[in-house]
Amino acid sequence: MSDCEAIDETIREKIQDIVVFMCNECGQGSANTAGVARMGYDPAIRIVRVQCTGQVGPIQIMDALNNGADAVACVGCCLGACHFFNGNILSMHRIKLMKKLFKELGYSDQFVNQYTSRAAEGETAVGDFEDIVDRLTTAIKEEGTIKDGC
Amino acid sequence: MDVKVFQFNGCNKCFNESLLLKLSSDLDVEYIKDPKTWKEEEIETAVITGYVLPSDIDLLIKIRSKAKKVIAYGSCPVSGGIYALANQNGHETTPLKNLVDNVIEIEGCLGEIDELKSVIKDLELTKPRKLCDLCTRRATCEYLDTVNRQIELDDEETCFNDLGFLCSGFVARECKERCIDYNTPCRGCKQLVGRSGIRMLGMFGTLMGNIEVATEHSVKGATDKLADEEDDVTRSLPDILGNFFRFTLTTSGLPKGRIPSSGSLLEDLFTGRLIEELPLITGLIGGDKSISLTLKIIESYEKANQMEVSEQTKKYREKLLGLEEKLHDAIEKEDAEQYKEITEKIRQIAGNMNLSNVFFGGFKSKIKDEDDFEDYKSHIFEVVEGTYKNGSVEYSIDSEGIIKEIKIKE
């Protein structure tokens, strides 16, 4: 958690809730592994378990953001390893379009993101969480939070 | 029954269309072009047309308190309509229901006059059907390999979306304007479901499954993540806001736009849109001048790029311009019969009052059965960077076909 201390206090206060949709297979699996190994992660991370990241679309992401989330991320299986068919790739397409949409509105594109993780390695999930917080901090520093406009 | 129609800001197409209310003998209709001149008497039914701004709130509250029934007629008062696209640059077009309560909404660009009549008379509305149920094209929903911004008009059986040509029909209700009948994909002005723009974005994103999306290595997670760089997915849709949220930006729950404004709402609405969208947008917002405005934009582009225009096309365009003059007459005299007659003639050539059939280089569908369609069929045109000027209109586009600057003097 040494990274968190380096973060500017005022910006850190603005990051209260980050909704992370984790797929039931690799995403949630790696979070479980991280839990078993007692790895810590940022307290702002709120995990929502879904069957597959393919279930998460722009509607769910906008619902989370409109109801107070500071950022949304999806964590799915590695590329080519979706336990269904290609849910993680489809989700990436939609999130990419969401990113572009935020840019067109004049916001940072870091409020939505998609990651992958490996069920056997807890540090992949924890690393993803750290990356989300880091990117969000930089984005807020440069372009302000999304709530400034919601 | 006493009805008053108020025209707020923006185009006056719906206001003009409400002339047709006069044809019902049991309605006593009065038209108020400038709501500030209204004498604040009691009203049975108030019909609001045109987009509203938060600065109009005093007047709207007065209307609300004096009227038994308030109807928002057309997409503009319901959700800001196409004018709401200027909210991308920080303008504050607002849905009427956010300013006053108890508003009956009639969506659509152009709003449907039959629906308005039924609502005024408290008749029951027929249950809306899905647009796709009425479409002659059939969808397979297979993943797309490419997204096309323009298509050749040969195939009349495959769904536009299957051709990679974005159509919002999946999330739209049936309507009278029926752009889909004139080889123009649905623009989604009548929503079938709430927040239809966001839903359509999800749907189309899924359809783009075969297009490669860029990924990168995440150092911290030691796995792959979605990359931030431009890729085929973002390049194939240069204007997401304008294509998916054409009529629903204010009701979609998206944050307010922070792109710097040029000052004028009309210019901001066009900036960032695509060149092939331009005639459609001017057709939507031009009001009673939409034909001349659309043709000015089209002709300036054709002339500068030496696009061939057939004699037949020119003839039909002349005819449209003539009809527009007559339409002005009818509106000035508030002559409903004449208005109906002329709009029917315009519809025969331009498809509908949104001019879906008018395009660069010709028309998109056959106008008369005895015509040879090849004579005036429009084809895919090349996007050429440059500045185009014709009379009161001047616009410049970049190499992608995105409008950078536009000036419309009225």
Structure description:
The complex is a heterodimer of chains A (150) and B (410). Chain A is α/β, with parallel strands linked by helices. Mean pLDDT of chain A is 90; it is low at 1-5. Chain A has helices spanning 2-6, 9-14, 26-36, 58-66, 87-104, 122-143, and strands at residues 18-23, 45-50, 71-76, 112-116. Chain A has 6 helices and 4 strands, in the order ααβαβαβαβα. Helix content of chain A is 47%, strand content 15%. Chain A has a 4-stranded parallel beta sheet with strand order 2-1-3-4, sandwiched between helices. Chain A has a single domain (17-145), classed as Rossmann fold. With 410 residues, chain B is an alpha/beta fold. Chain B folds into 3 domains: 2-120, NADH:ubiquinone oxidoreductase-like, 20kDa subunit (Rossmann fold); 127-238, no CATH class; 274-410, no CATH class. Chain B is built from 13 helices and 12 strands. In chain B, the strands form 4 sheets. A 5-stranded parallel beta sheet of chain B has the order 2-1-3-4-5. In chain B, strands 10-11-12 form a 3-stranded antiparallel beta sheet. In chain B, helix 10 (278-285) packs antiparallel against helix 11 (290-304) and helix 12 runs antiparallel to helix 13 (336-350). Chain B is globular and about 70 Å long. The mean pLDDT of chain B is 91. Chain A binds chain B through residues 57-59, 62, 66, 78-79, 86, 89-90, 92-101, 104-107, 109-110, 113-118, 121, 123-125, 127-128, 130-131, 134, 146, 148-150, and chain B through 88, 195, 198-199, 201-202, 204-206, 208-209, 211, 213, 215, 218-226, 228, 231, 233-234, 237, 239-241, 252-259, 272.
Reading the helices and strands of chain A in chain order gives HHEHEHEHEH
Rg of chain B (C-alpha, Å): 22 Å
Stretches of chain A where pLDDT is under 50 for at least 5 consecutive residues are: 1-5
Q: Just give the CATH class of chain A.
A: Alpha Beta
Oligomeric state, counting identical vs distinct chains: heterodimer
Tally of alpha and pi helices of chain B: 13
